[in-house]
Amino acid sequence: MTETSTAVLRLDNLSVRLPDGADRTHALAGVSLAIAADEILCVVGESGSGKSMMANAIMRLLPGGVSIDGGRALFEGIDLASASINDLRKVRGAGIAMVFQEPMTALNPLRTIGDQIGEMFSIHTDLSKADIRARVQALLEDVRIPDPKAAARAYPHELSGGQRQRAMIAMALALDPKLLIADEPTTALDVTTQAQILKLIRELQQRRRTAVLFITHDFGVVAEIADRVAVMQHGSIVEQGSVRDVLLKPQHAYTKQLLAAVPPLTAPPPRTLSEDMVLTIDNVSKTYRTGGFLGRGARVTHAVKNVSLQLPRGATLGIVGESGSGKSTLARCLVRLIDPDAGSIMADGKDWATMTKENVRRETRHIQMVFQDPFASLNPRRKAGELVAQGPIIHGTPRAKALADARELFALVGLDPAASDRFPHEFSGGQRQRIGLARALALQPAILVADEAVSALDVSVQAQVLKLLAELRQRLGLSIVFITHDLRVAAQICDLVAVMKDGEVVEHGLAGDVLGRPQHPYTKALIASIPGGNFERARP
Fold first, then answer.
1. What is the dihedral of CA 235, 236, 238, 243, to 10 degrees?
2. Residue 149: burial class (beta carbons within 10 Å; 0-12, 13-18, 19+)
3. pLDDT, position 297
4. DSSP states of 461-484
5. Strand order of the sheet with strand 78-79?
6. Cα-based torsion angle of the residue sequence 211, 215, 220, 221 in order, rounded to the nearest 10 degrees
7. pLDDT for res 479
8. 6-31 in b/e burial notation, b at 16+ Cβ within 10 A?
9. Angle at CA 241, nearest 5°, toward 428 and 73?
10. C-alpha span between 332 and 337 (Å, rounded)
């Protein structure tokens, strides 16, 4: 542990109690750690380990019914665990600032970016409006946002995910806090944007001598940015030390388990693929046209441009690329959630690109989709078993049989069949993704389209879902289109990989060839941007 005399923040046996009826009594159980100026401390662990609860306890932003019931959180002589609301208001923003995981939900959609950053100065300082505008401009330049003047006038929805996260960092750094808490700030970002944000945080931390408490479940990020690492499990810190010691010489069994679950970038030996093509995509294109009055100021976006790919029966085709590359648009064209403008999508002798809506509904059992956010795609008012049975019921299966089949599917994807009577909010993120998978499998599809199906899961749950997909592919003869921005995941699950950029496929082939011996400059840039490259090379 860092010497407490130099610590910006010190936690002494901090405990946080959960409401009665929860799975366990405490979210945090006697957590002790310290962080110094000029230091980045990464806290890593699975979902539910207590990482975010610790950050919220430091800021005293705990949900109703959850309370600190022991220990101290010392910051500049103030015990945040017992401080008054007035004292906390002085600390928040000015002394300790926080960057949240999802900037779109943390930013006010009705106010401009400049207005929201400027609010920090109007609340905590006596600066004039002109001085505030100048400070906002300087901050946006500091976090490397393109065209800072336009960004200050923009609303959150008008910026990309990476730009919104930069705006959040600018807001957090506005008052030069001594401690920055970053709670999973790069989880939903593609590799190149993630690399830019990590570099930015490191540069700002060194320039401003800010202490950074960085919460993540990604060991690549830990290897890239951390000075020290603390590993959490079930609300307790089980191991902490230098980044090199923890990643390369882990002592605790849980740390070893987490590290073993990190997928390597090296693809396994290629399987023998069928010559029977279950899906043939030929010159598919999709263009979006938005805005403009009488043609003036209209925007044309070529989301997918002349994409041609083939999927052998029983194989997995990975489609990788940055946000905005066209991956998800192509996926939605495949299942006809949107209509392609041109080209053909041949599946089992039928052209899905030109099929009528009525025929799509009739044939939809053959191609099913697993979505990125299972919580958003599951109806919160219906029980999980009913959600899985819904498709077969619509297609004529008697309700009693469909519900019985749903229970069998629960067992197939590794869930307790009795849990089919629970609602979606009663499951963890990994369990909800299994429900989404069971729902897609209920119609016994030949082709499964998985759109970022594991991107929000921590490494151990991700490993479980990937293993499950591989087993189901083998057992059920599934053919899978796997959309992802995580090249490590693509290397492990995919037989073939296609790399998309600006709507086009710039490189495709066997996973081992594309990821191990990339030819296109863009593929090389993606691989170079994967966080933790040194860790990858040093792994046992």
1. 80
2. middle
3. 57
4. HHHHHHHHHHHHHHHH--EEEEEE
5. 26-36, 7-17, 67-75, 78-79
6. -40
7. 94
8. ebbbbbbebbbbbeeeeeeebbbbeb
9. 70
10. 5
Burial of 60 (0-12, 13-18, 19+ CB in 10 A): middle
pLDDT at position 330, please?
A: 94
Q: How crowded is residue 213: how many other Cβ atoms within 10 Å of its Cβ?
A: 25
Q: What's 534's DSSP letter?
A: H
CA-based radius of gyration for the chain: 25
- For residues 505, 509, 515, 518, the Cα torsion angle rounded to the nearest 10 degrees is -70
Locate 534 and state its tokens: 């040194």
Q: Which residues of the chain, if any, have pLDDT below 70? A: 1-5, 22, 188, 290-299, 373-375, 429-430, 456, 533-540
pLDDT of residue 2: 42
pLDDT at 540: 54
pLDDT at 533: 63
Sort residue 102 into left (φ over 0), alpha (ψ -120 to 50) or beta: beta
Domains of the chain, start order: 4-95+175-261 (3.40.50.300), 102-165 (no CATH), 277-369+448-538 (3.40.50.300)
Residue with tokens 């990464």: 42
- Reported pTM: 0.77
SS3 99: strand
Query: What does the chain come to in residues?
Result: 540
8, 36 Cβ separation under 8 angstroms? yes
Estimate to the nearest angstrom the gap between the alpha carbon of 3 and the chain centroid: 34
Q: Under 8 Å CB-to-CB from 301, ≥6 apart: which residues?
A: 287, 288, 289, 290
**What token pair was written down for 224?**
């890239």
Q: Which residues contact 215 (CB under 8 A, 6 or more apart)?
A: 42, 43, 44, 51, 52, 54, 55, 181, 182, 183, 184
Strands 342-347 and 277-290: antiparallel
- What is d(CA 482, CA 494) in angstroms, rounded to the nearest whole number? 7
Cβ-proximal residues to 254 (8 Å cutoff; 6+ apart), any chain:
231, 233, 238, 239
Q: Residue 374 has what pLDDT?
A: 64
Give the pLDDT of residue 451: 86
